[in-house]
Design brief:
mainly alpha
């Protein structure tokens, strides 16, 4: 659970959203750059923890939602596999002109 939370926190920090633009514009004008970055990072950590806790409470309290999330995940993975299977760019073909001169 902690590793997943750290991973999603890292992704949130990498994504360019309002926080990114706020930090960039403030860092050009402000002297306390490190303080600003630490505050934004702390807020993202708090929001990540709260969202993970709320989602885990909702899923553990209501089994129907858990089943719906599971079914949605299965359908999505099935959709991705069909999409990948249908969009193959290279079909397997037998070569027609083979030069066997190197075999002697």
């Amino acid at each position: 659970m902690i590793a997943t939370l750290i991973f999603f926190h890292f992704l949130a920090l990498l994504s360019s959203g309002p926080d990114f633009f706020y930090v960039m514009t403030s860092s050009l004008n402000n002297e306390e750059k490190l303080k600003l970055v630490l505050v934004v990072t702390f807020v993202i950590v708090i929001w990540s923890i709260l969202s993970a806790l709320v989602l885990s409470i909702i899923i553990t309290k209501n089994k129907e939602i858990m089943h719906l999330v599971t079914i949605a995940g299965v359908i999505y993975l099935f959709y991705l596999s069909l999409k990948k299977f249908n969009n193959r760019k290279e079909k397997i073909k037998k070569p027609t002109n083979i030069n066997y001169t190197f075999l002697g």
